[in-house]
């Protein structure tokens, strides 16, 4: 995962939301996805731009900070919750969490 700064994330948000290709109303203050967490806001804006621009890999570059994810990370968390006790008994849970972090 590339390291970034707040300034670079803000630049990516401004680019995505200012392009006219991303609908960023939801992350505006008072919107349903509004957050003070800059990473969550950048994630939303960059994702909205990617979809608004046509789902092409090059639309997810964002100066090297974008990344296309093909699986839903919420499913991984759900899997850990559902199988955690079995995996812990088998000694696998710690390995999986360490790998995922």
UniProtKB/TrEMBL annotation:
Entries under InterPro entries matching the protein: X8, X8_dom_prot
Key word rRNA-binding present: no
A Pfam short name: X8
Chain ranges of the X8 domain: 1-86
Source organism of this protein record: Zingiber officinale
Protease recorded as keyword: no
Entry protein name: X8 domain-containing protein
GO cellular component, one term: plasmodesma
Keywords: Signal
